Amino acid sequence: MTKKEKASYIINELEKLYPTTPIPLDHKDPYTLLISVLLSAQCTDKRVNLITPTLFNLADNPFDMIELSVDEIRAIIRPCGLSPRKSQAIFTLSEMLIDKYGGEVPQTFEQLEELPGVGHKTASVVMAQAFGVPAFPVDTHIHRLLTRWGITNGKNVVQTEKDAKKLFPENLWNKLHLQIIFYGREYSPSRSPKMNVDFITLKIGTVIAKKELN
User: Fold this and answer.
1) Which of 129, 156, 180 is the last residue of a domain?
2) Is 60 a known active-site residue?
3) Are residues 8 and 59 in the same domain?
4) 121: annotated active-site residue
């Protein structure tokens, strides 16, 4: 099976499973999405969604956010992990949004990636899900699956993103990255791969490393 054939098969199967792709992180606008994505680093979306209502009830915009102290933010988001770094990033990026963009979330990759705590993956999610700009955010789970499926050589997430963009049509990027995340959670979780139900891997014939089965 060539890479193009694999890509076509993946697209068709994921579309059957997930014809609609609701955004996993609860939010109401680009700012609350940005904060939620930042919080999701090394934390599950489910836990983020449990934490953000408390935070957003106090501050769902940068102007209100900077009225809180870093310590107050940290106390609320502590269950998400990395709270010292994330709380400082949330406070500082809120200040930057006010100072540089009038409190609005900028709509370019470059401007987003200048914000504290915002890397390329986070910027890609915001561009795709808040502004509808074609992007292919690659987290460790997408990287793992696309490597397993033979779409990329698996060297790093940067290469995986490039390989994915070459093979998958641009008009599908925003939806497809969510479909892959949903598939991974249901059929191929990283901690306990389900070889008997991970039918895409079985079809493509990629061998799962023994260490992933331990």
Assistant:
1) 129
2) no
3) no
4) yes
